[in-house]
Design brief:
His_Pase_superF_clade-1, PGM_Phosphatase, 9 strands, single chain, Rossmann fold, alpha/beta, phosphatase activity, PG/BPGM_mutase_AS
């Protein structure tokens, strides 16, 4: 554990990214404030319920955080035999993201900014160690992003997994956030409810259902690819669910369109190596637009 230390490498700019290494066991932990420059590590021995145990069966008992430099994030010279490295990318911005319209599992095209975000992510990942496979949600915004990445990474195909799709948010789908509470009050309240097993009216998923689906598909991918690197292109809701399920944190913070996140599974223990890395977007000048429509991740 000597390697777990605090290193403050971020520039004092609000738009700069930071990397988190999160070593996980069953615990309740507090993430550093992303706007704070002070390192933070908090762990506790609070008991977990049987439902929580089922939901995060692979999460291990305490957490420590490490701010890292970009060169430390991805394995450079091959993945160790017992490690599955999953690079998770959120799709590029869509027309509905930009206009504040709720997508859920409805289709929406990448807009001009989203296409450039996808290209930036592809350019970055194309310079790294080649992935064994690239997976994508079956929704077009994710699949189009994944195809651009596959081309740059010289991967012949994108493997579609429907379980990677965005959360179904019931009768909220297709509405604008600005008047969704007025038009679908019950669904709006269910979406924001702290009762995680509450399904959203209109055929929507509960947050627990989303977490269970997300954890299951990432376990399946990781166990299939030990000693390998894979790329998964998915959605903000899925990213939020996998992060909150594995860390037991109440929030995942903002998750940029086109951001890169790195997750390892080693000896049945999950470890986030990077979270919401959007340095490649800053380099191409699309950082500010990346947050549009992002706050609710659907």
């Amino acid at each position: 554990m000597d390697a777990l230390r605090y290193s403050l490498m971020a520039k004092i700019h609000a738009h700069r990214f930071c990397f988190l290494v999160i070593r996980l066991k069953f615990s309740s932990v507090a993430l550093p404030n992303p706007n704070s420059m002070a390192p933070c590590a908090v762990s506790s021995n609070q008991p977990i319920s049987s439902n929580e145990h089922k939901l995060v069966s692979l999460v291990a008992s305490e957490a420590q955080f490490l701010i890292e430099t970009p060169d430390c994030v991805l394995v450079k010279n091959g993945i160790p035999a017992g490690v599955a490295e999953i690079i998770i990318v959120r799709h590029g911005e869509t027309t509905w993201n930009a206009s504040g319209r709720i997508q859920g599992q409805l289709e929406s095209d990448l807009n001009e900014v989203g296409l450039k975000q996808a290209v930036a992510a592809a350019e970055r990942l194309g310079k790294e160690l080649k992935p064994t496979a690239i997976y994508s949600s079956d929704l077009k915004r994710a699949y189009e992003t994944a195809k651009m990445i596959a081309k740059k990474c010289d991967c012949p195909e994108v493997i579609v997994i429907p379980e990677l799709k965005e959360r179904h948010v019931g009768s909220l789908q297709g509405l604008f956030w600005s008047d969704s509470e007025e038009k679908e009050c019950d669904a709006f309240r269910a979406f924001f409810s702290s009762q995680n097993d509450l399904e959203i009216p209109g055929g929507g998923e509960s947050f627990d259902q989303l977490c269970q689906r997300s954890v299951a598909v990432f376990e399946q991918i990781a166990l299939k690819h030990k000693g390998e690197r894979v790329i998964v292109v998915t959605h903000g809701g899925v990213l939020r669910a996998i992060y909150m399920a594995l860390t037991r944190e109440p929030s995942a913070g903002k998750i940029m369109n086109g951001s890169v996140n790195v997750l390892h599974l080693t000896n049945n223990k999950w470890e986030f190596k990077a979270w919401n890395d959007y340095s490649h977007l800053n380099e191409v000048g699309f950082l500010q637009r990346g947050f549009n429509g992002d706050s609710l991740q659907v």
